[in-house]
Structure formats: structure tokens, C-alpha cells
Amino acid sequence: MAQKPPTEHGARDAVQKGRRKESSQEQRGDSPQGPRGGSAQGRLADAPKGSRDRSASGAARTPGAADARGADARGAEGAGFSRRRLLGTAGATGLVLGAAGAGTGYAVGEAGGSGESGAEGRPLSALGTDMVMFHGKHQPGITTPMQAHGHLLAFDLAPGAGRKEAAALLRRWSGTAARLMAGEPAATAGGRDTDIARDAGPSLLTVTFGFGHSFFARTGLERSRPDALDPLPDFSADRLDKGRSNGDLWVQIGAQDALVAFHALRALQKEAAGAARVRWQMNGFNRSPGATARPMTTRNLMGQIDGTNNPKPSEKDFARRVFVPEDGAPAWMAGGSYAVVRRIRMLLDDWEQLSGGEQERVIGRRKSDGAPLSGGTETTDPRLEKTGPDGELLVPLDAHARITRPDQNGGAAMLRRPFSFHDGIDADGEPDAGLLFICWQADPLRGFVPVQRKLDRGDALSKFLRHEASGLFAVPGGAAQGEYVGQRLLEG
Fold first, then answer.
1. What does the pLDDT read at residue 446?
2. At residue 492, does pLDDT exceed 80?
3. Is 306 marked active-site?
4. Can you give the residue ranges of every domain in the chain?
5. Mind listing the pLDDT tens digit for each residue in 406-427?
6. Which of 133, 253, 309, 404 has the fewest CB atoms within 10 Å around its CB?
7. PROSITE patterns, per this entry (predicted)?
8. Strand 431-441 with 337-346, pairing
9. Of these residues, 130, 156, 248, 306, which one is catalytic?
């Protein structure tokens, strides 16, 4: 992280000065150069035009639907913040995928991978400059690169609060999120920022908002509730704590810096005072940027490479699988997605009693590099019918990698974007740790539900997992400049 400049307001003054200086450079046609000069890293020159063009006021234009193949983030160069370094949330700025084939996260920078490592040779001090635009066709935090720190919260509307109060809250939240994601102070209702992130840049901060099933009854909008938001079915592995499940409103926060993430959490919680109260909160993490020598798919707390078969934005059907189409129903969900959130505890003491070979057969992949047990590399398609010298299938019938493949589930697919969690040691001396599973899809009945049903019937990994909390949320499309998230629903 950059050192604090000798000004009254620290690094955030430098942010504003950098914007003014580089804005004038852009008007002259100059290209601001960072520590890596003209590298593609941090530049949007090779991205679809809609993500770079800006109006005279500096507001980002909303990219078109055809831009769904790209990303909503890319690494920024240098210590300053320029409009060229804004990372669009509309799926329009060329998401870089690694050899891992889109693991649980996406890389920031020239080399692809999981998003936990910057491009090779990139100074870590530049990570604080990564910025994502709040406004766009899709909300941030869906195809944004995986961040190192995350918070998930559900809120219930306060007694007596309804549609009017919810609209006012979403307007406040949207304004605060846009400022924080741009590296600006929160300017909350109290009129004073907490200064928690005073010395930091935006650090790839994203804030994402969604609506739970109960929200629509609380606001008198039952007729606008999507059919896709019907409650999830029960599964045999569920041991759900109702107090930590569902909720009227859902907020996802992610950032590369822990203080930046907590700053956003605190600001949004304060903004909700009087209108909504926290129902539950969960905190998660991923591998820190620069932790690996090269970009690679991340690992989960079982030590497994996790996320190899995620859908890739380069695939022609990516947008169809992840986002509600423009002509989808209901109309207010156009450009949105449905988030399934599960707190999945990993029974690590039991898992770690298995030998390395036993663990690999449960997963169906090598633990060292994620390659299928039938041979090849991480991105090689498993040869599901291949047998070993003993005549047994190399990828067992109940292997997790076999069961979760789209071609084994009628084409069902979802974009997984989880965080790991560790909430201490329980009374039995076992770690309360696992995965904050978050998956995105245009319709849960064509994504999470069929896959989980199949896992429920015969996945070898299931005996080492316990689903302890669950939620399903309708996440509307992104807000245009001057609008707030959910405005088409609340004012339609």
C-alpha cells in the first residue's frame, strides 16, 4: 500500500488530483503511463469501446448487451487513478482468463488465472489503485476478479418500514457504494467518514445488492416477485440455521484490502439505521494477491484447486447462463442474476484423515495441479470412461469432478465466486471453517438446483460437508448514472 501523502486528507486528496491531471491528458489524447509503460495491463485500449467512452461530464456510458463476453475489471497501472483505469462493471472490459480455464476467480493483469495473483512483476503497491465502476449494465461483484477479503450480510427491513423506506435506503446505499468504489469518502448520514480506509485506494472494492423472497411481501410488491425466487428445495446435507439464512436484503462486499472492505461494511450498516437491521453477517477470504509465483486457480481449505470448470466469459452462452436477458421476466430483472449463497462447513478433521490418493479419488482430480485422474492438465476434459490396469474407472462414478460437469447435469451451469471462512474452533476442538459458496445464474432451476440434487444423491465429497446456512437473492441489473439499484422495481 502506498504511503500516506503529506496532506490533510491523505491519499484521497492524491486520488482527486490524479483524476484531474489524467483527465486533461485524455482530452489531449495522451495515454497515462504506469510503472509498466504501455503494457496492456491496466489499459482499456483493447476492450470493447463502450467501456472506455465517456461523456463530457466524465460519466461512464452503459455498455451494450453484446459486451457480456468481457469482464468488469482489469488491473490498473501506476499510483494514480485515471478514467482509463476505471474497471467497468458491465461485462465489457475484456476479462482475462488464465490457463486454469476460469477458476473460482479471474486474474487482474496480463496473465490469466484466478485473480489472487497480479500480473508477473507487478508491484503490489499498485493493487490499491484497482477500481471498478459502480454504474453499468450489470452490478459489480459478479464477474469482477476474486478479491482477497469479503463480507456477506443480510438485512431485514425495520418494523413499519415498507416500499418507501426501502427505496430511500437503496438510493443511499447506491450513492455510498459508488463513492467508496471510486476511492472517495463515504459521506454517510452522520456527515463524517470513519477514516478507516483513509490512506488506501479503492483496492478493487465492489458492492452488490440483492432482494430476498421476503422483501416483496414486506414492501407490497408480491406481484413483482420473480418465479425464479421461489424457495430452494430441501437437500439431505442441509443442517440449516434459519437465523443465518435468507433475509429481505442482501449485500456482498469484496476488496483486495481488509480495511477497505470493512470501511464499506461499516458505512452501509450505518446508512441502514432506522430502515433495516442486520439479520446475519459472514466474513470470508481468498488467497492474497502476489502469494503465488504465477497466476493460478485458487485452492479451498481442503487444499484442492477449486473452480476449474467455471463458465468462461469467452463462451458464447456465458451471458445466457449467468444473466437474465433483456427480454426476460420480470422486466426489472433484465441484466440481473440470481445469487445462491450457502455457508458450507468443511469437516476438515475427517477429510485430513484420508490419504492423498483417497482425497484425489473423492474429487476426481490430482491435488498437485488439478488435472483429472484420467490424465492431462487442469484444463483437460476428463476421459470419464477411461479405466486403469485394474479395470476400474480412473475418475470414479461418485467423484465430485464427474458429478458437477454440465454434460452430466443436462447442461446446468453456474458461475461460482466463493470465499473461504474460518470462524474459530468449536466446543469439540474442530475448526469452524469452510466455504461461503456463492453462485450466479440466470435461473436457479437451470443452475444450482439440478447440480445440487445430483450431488445430494451420490457425491463422494458430500460426507465431508455440512450446509449450515442458505439464501437465494434476486440481484437486479446495474444502475445507470443518476439511478439506484432496484429503482425499476421500487418505482416501476
1. 94
2. yes
3. yes
4. 39-59+67-74+82-492
5. 888 888 989 999 999 999 999 9
6. 309
7. DYP_PEROXIDASE (PS51404), TAT (PS51318)
8. antiparallel
9. 306
